[in-house]
Predict the 3D structure of the following.
Amino acid sequence: MFRYTMDCGTCETAGPVQVMTPEVVNVQLTISNKAQEMLSDAFGDDRSLALLVGVLSGGCSGYMYDLQIVEETDQSCQEIEVDGFRVLVPNSSSHLLDGIEIDYVDRLMGGGFKINNPNAESSCGCGESFS
Amino acid sequence: MPRVAYNDAALTVWRGKDSLKFIDGLSTNKMVDLKKGEVRQTVFTTTSAKIIDFATVFHMGDFLAILTHKSNLKNLLEQVLPKILNQDVNIQDVTDRNSFWIEYQEKIGQIGTFTVSEGCTRANISENFSIAVSSLDVKLDSDGTLDEFNEWRIENLVPWVGHEITSKNHPLAVGLAEYVHPAKGCYVGQEILARMISRKRQGKILIRVANNDVNEKFITTRGDSHSLAIVRENQYPSNSLS
């Protein structure tokens, strides 16, 4: 008979594993001229939209960049204005994103937005993942 | 069915809606489609595709119970905790509340599922191998020895943490290729493993070999007449990826 419990061995009274939360950094970032052009195309005239620059776990190197155009987000973010664009950076990943340059590479294969990150020790071949 | 204590086992409970996706991005097997009542094994790897730990993941419905190893737990948590970021993932260590057992040699239930009876949760890992987790108030006894279990492992080419599954090796070298999903997408260490698979070159391989047929330094588990050994694949090409 299936019962999806592990009896008392996994009850919720066990303490959580302590996660060291990194210090929130006031992010400074730049956007290359080519990336600004492409973002202007993407945003159109609606500058109420924001570029969310985040980080997810995974990818070949442990972290993956996450770029989205959003109206709002429920993540705790810092909002900065860069070259007329509204940019949102989640506080939880601010330590990984301070000093980045958002660039755009114009080529048929492997092209698109790229992040040049001085904090990255290594990155994977496609450039979407870093550690 | 012989049963031996699994003394190096560690158990953590992972809660939160992002837990499966989180594990999927950090380990080699496809985990995002794991369903309630299923169990699946996966390998946490470094960016250089070296093993951090070999994990058995139980989908308990509202949480995941992940059996790893005490000897690797600190390193595993150091690798995964900084990557939670703003995802909904909470981890509890419940190792001390449970005892762990290996049962082997006899045919068991449906592979990839687990059953719970009399306070004991049994994961059916392969045709004749299961891992049992019981809370401390449930009394189970060993009726086999570790040496006997190791002989069974050698006979069945089953790698084990601390012997073959170590931080010096990548999953393919220790016989864990079936836990490296070929098409799941990016995960930590994927570039290196994908290159090995596509080129059919993995460097080292796990073999079962007569004790006198291999240099002692390659032996990872020694048995009475045969051993498990990790050797260069060009020395034993028939055992390589095909």
Q: What stands out?
A: Chain A has a mean pLDDT of 85. Chain A touches chain B through 41 residues (CB under 8 Å).
